[in-house]
Amino acid sequence: MEHKFSPKALEEARVLFAQPCDFLRGAAALDDIPPTRAPEIAFAGRSNVGKSSLVNALTGRTTLARVSNTPGRTREINFFLLGSRLMLADLPGYGYARVSKEQSARWTELVFAYLRGRPNLRRVVLLIDARRGLLEHDVEVMDLLDKAAVSYQIVLTKMDKLKPQELRETEINVAVVAAKHGAAHPEILGTSSVSGEGIPELRAALAMLAGR
Ligand code: GDP
């Protein structure tokens, strides 16, 4: 799909994402969630979708992946502050096969409580592996986001693994499902943390939601 961001918007976004990005805290329970400050973007996706890699590619740092993949932190919401203008919330990955029903219910409880009680949350970026497209669990999460009335945008990861035609087919299939979900942003963005494709455009889309 074509994305039309002006050179100025792309440059402003690059500057925003080049600012320091500091880990604030991890929250395993609602009480641990830091008080509302800057506008916030949350990142959600299945385990292994490439979430840590993408957040690192956006910020040009490796610290986030290290924090988010530290044992014990993987089931927390990890909060990072980008240049005091944008809060990034890394939601725990879902859909890991060996997770019990109880753990899965705890994920839903924490995430739903977070989504409902976060007035500064501007958007959830829902990551989908471009090779796999939407799986059942992803659609369940979309239902949850609809229910929480939170606006979200689907971003495809690992697009370097697909031929352009395959990518277009995935984008269309995903867009058809997204169109049936009230809170889904109509634009689907393709990205690759390996090639860097789509990263400036995603930065620009998110920078539009940041504070001054
Ligand atoms: P997370 O569990 O969602 O945080 O996923 P990670 O960022 O740890 O990535 C999971 C796996 O996918 C790792 O082996 C990464 O090297 C790989 N990966 C992540 N992003 C990309 C990408 O854009 N392209 C390709 N080819 N592989 C990727």
Can you walk through the features of this model?
The protein has 212 residues and is of the alpha/beta class. It has a single domain, classed as P-loop containing nucleotide triphosphate hydrolases (Rossmann fold, 3-Layer(aba) Sandwich), CATH 3.40.50. It contains seven helices and seven strands; from the N terminus they run αββααββαβαβαβα. A seven-stranded mixed β-sheet has the order 1-3-4-2-5-6-7, with helices on both faces. α6 links the parallel β6 and β7 (189-190). α1 packs across α7. The chain is globular and about 40 Å long. The two termini are 29 Å apart. The relative contact order is 0.20. Guanosine-5'-diphosphate (GDP) binds next to α2.
Describe the structure using short key phrases.
alpha/beta, 7-stranded mixed β-sheet, Rossmann fold, binds guanosine-5'-diphosphate, 212 residues
Itemize the secondary structure elements and their pairings.
Blueprint: H1 7-17, E1 21-27, E2 40-45, H2 51-59, H3 63-68, E3 77-82, E4 86-90, H4 101-116, E5 121-129, H5 136-147, E6 152-157, H6 164-178, E7 189-190, H7 199-207
Parallel strand pairs: 2-4, 2-5, 5-6, 6-7
Antiparallel strand pairs: 1-3, 3-4
Bound molecules: guanosine-5'-diphosphate.
